[in-house]
Amino acid sequence: MKVLVFHIGSDRYGLRLGAIARVLPAAGLKLLPLAPAFVAGLLDLHGEPVPVIDLSQLAGAPALQLWFDTRIILLDYRVDGSSRALGLLAEHVAGIETIDMASLSDSGVSGAPFLGRVASSAAGMLQLVEPEGLLTDAVRALLFQPQEAPP
Fold first, then answer.
1. Which of 67, 75, 131, 146 has the fewest CB atoms within 10 Å of its CB?
2. Residue 83 backbone phi and psi in degrees, to 5
3. Residues in domain CheW-like (predicted)?
4. What's the CA gap between 58 and 145, in Å, rounded?
């Protein structure tokens, strides 16, 4: 399985390529007042607002710093049976790596539903991020208002 590798602090994480719609350079975001701290803001993507999550803060690490290799990873996120754009702000995006499915094992840690299985390689341990576990129902409701039917 191919994954996009990024870091939260010094730890390596991966997101399945099949879950990714696009990868963009970091951009200016509109802040969302009263949103949880891990909501970095809204990205203007061709006139459409896209909520962006700071993966560092979501994982309980210090707020993300902008580096030359910071990226916004766009997902087609499933909300109420439809697909909506969701951005993930990720530090130190390192590139694509192939993970041997047989090398994946349970982390043995619960409590962060967006963190999946782990793999070890010569490059070190890598933990998968599971997009469906990223947002609670309350945060989903805050970020994704019901879409109006076209007239």
1. 146
2. -105, 130
3. 1-140
4. 21
Q: Which residue ranges make up each domain of the chain?
A: 2-143
Report pLDDT digits (tens) over 64-103: 666 768 899 999 998 888 889 999 999 888 889 988 887 7
Binned at pLDDT 50, 70 and 90, residue 63 comes out as low
DSSP states along the chain: -EEEEEEETTEEEEEEGGGEEEEEE----B--TTS-TTEEEEEEETTEEEEEEEHHHHTTSSPP---TT-EEEEEEEEETTEEEEEEEEEEEEEEEEE--GGG-B--S--S-TTEEEEEEETTEEEEEE-GGGSS-HHHHHHH-PPPPPP-
Report phi then psi at 138, rounded to 5: -65, -40
Instruction: Give the pLDDT of residue 108.
Output: 66
As a whole number of angstroms, the distance between CA 22 and CA 103 comes to 27
Look at residue 7 in the predicted model and tell me its pLDDT: 87
Count of beta carbons in the 10 Å neighbourhood of residue 13: 22
